[in-house]
Design goal:
Strand content: 15-25%
Structural class: alpha/beta
Distance between the termini: 7 Å
Radius of gyration: 19 Å
Number of helices: 13
Largest sheet: 5 strands, mixed
Order of helices and strands: EEEHEHEHEEEHHHHHHHEHHEH
CATH topology of one domain: Nucleotidyltransferase, domain 5
C-alpha cells in the first residue's frame, strides 16, 4: 500500500491505499516541518496514524505539506517518516502541488489555497511552474485564517471592533491583552492560534463589520497574489482551504469583482489526491 499525507497549517489528512482497498481518511495535527520536530512527525505516525489504520503494509509515502519547500525541509520530512517506516520511498511535495493534483489532476490551471495560511500558483499539469511567494503569516498569507485573525484581534485590542461584538468576543475568549500577545509572539504555533479566531467571524458573518473584514482580506489576497500573474479577465481559478470553504460566497463575489471565475471551492484536496493517485497508477 501507499500512504498519502495532505498536511496544512492546522491538520494532516492521511489515507493508505492499494489498487483494491483503502483505509479511509485519518486526521492528525498539522506537520509543517518549519514548526514541528522530526520526533513529532515520527510520533504522530507511530502512535496515532498507523495504529488507527491497523498497521497497513506501507511500501511508499507521498507527503504533500505546508512548509515543504527547499531541500532542508524536504529532507527533514523524509528522515522523520523513514524513522517510523524504515527503508521505504518517501516522496515529499509542497501542499500547493498536492492541491493542484487534487483539484486539477493532469490539467493545467491556476490553484489557490486559503486556509490557516494562503498560497497560489500556476500548474502546468505536472508541477507548479509559477508561484507568487506567500511569505507566511507575518509578511503575507493574505486572506488566510491567520490574516483574518490578526485583523480581528488587533481591532478588538484597539477598540475598533463594534462595542456589542467586542463584548461578545470578550465573553467567549476572555481576550486579555497580555495573554493574546504572549500567545502570538511566544506561542509554539502562533498562526494556528491566531487562525482559531476565524470561528468568531464565521459565527457573526451577518454583521457588516465581520463581512467587510473578510471581503477586504480576500481583496488583499487578489491584489497581492492573483493580479501578479498577469492573467486575462475570465481566468478560471480552483480554490481549496477551510477559510475559502466557509466564506465561499464572499470569495466568489470578490474574485468576480476582479474578473476571476471561481471554478470550484473545496475544503481540502485529499479526496482528489486519492483519485489522482488511482488514475495515474501511483499505487
Amino acid at each position: 500500500m501507499i500512504l498519502i499525507a495532505e498536511s496544512g497549517g492546522t491538520k494532516t489528512n492521511w489515507c493508505a491505499m492499494s489498487g483494491t482497498s483503502e483505509t479511509g481518511v485519518i486526521q492528525s495535527i498539522g506537520l509543517n516541518p518549519n514548526f514541528v520536530s522530526k520526533d513529532t512527525i515520527r510520533e504522530v505516525l507511530t502512535l496515532e496514524v498507523l495504529p488507527a489504520m491497523n498497521y497497513p503494509a506501507i511500501r511508499e509515502v507521498w507527503f504533500y505539506g505546508a512548509g515543504c519547500a527547499g531541500e532542508a525541509m524536504i529532507r527533514k520530512v523524509q528522515e522523520a517518516v523513514n524513522s517510523a517506516l524504515p527503508g521505504i520511498m518517501v516522496n515529499v511535495f509542497s501542499d500547493l502541488t498536492g492541491a493542484a493534483r487534487g483539484l486539477l489532476g493532469k490539467n493545467p490551471g491556476y490553484i489557490c489555497m486559503i486556509g490557516t495560511g494562503s498560497n497560489s500558483g500556476y500548474y502546468d499539469g505536472r508541477q507548479i511552474t509559477f508561484n507568487v511567494p506567500p511569505l507566511g503569516f507575518i509578511l503575507g498569507d493574505e486572506g488566510s485564517g491567520a490574516a483574518l485573525g490578526k485583523k480581528l484581534i488587533a481591532d478588538f485590542l484597539r477598540g475598533i471592533m463594534p462595542g456589542r461584538l467586542a463584548d461578545e468576543f470578550k465573553s467567549i475568549y476572555g481576550a486579555e491583552k497580555d495573554e493574546i500577545v504572549s500567545n502570538v509572539y511566544r506561542g509554539v504555533f502562533p498562526s494556528r492560534y491566531i487562525g482559531g479566531f476565524v470561528k468568531f467571524l464565521n459565527d457573526h458573518i451577518a454583521e457588516s463589520y465581520c463581512r467587510e473584514l473578510v471581503e477586504s482580506s480576500f481583496g488583499e489576497f487578489v491584489r497581492r497574489n492573483l493580479l501578479l500573474y498577469g492573467t486575462p479577465p475570465g481566468t478560471r481559478i480552483e480554490v481549496t482551504g477551510s477559510v475559502a470553504w466557509h466564506f465561499r460566497d464572499i470569495l466568489e463575489e470578490v474574485f468576480k469583482s476582479y474578473g476571476f471565475v471561481v471554478s470550484s471551492v473545496c475544503q481540502g484536496p485529499i479526496e482528489g489526491l486519492i483519485r489522482y493517485h488511482k488514475e495515474n497508477s501511483l499505487l
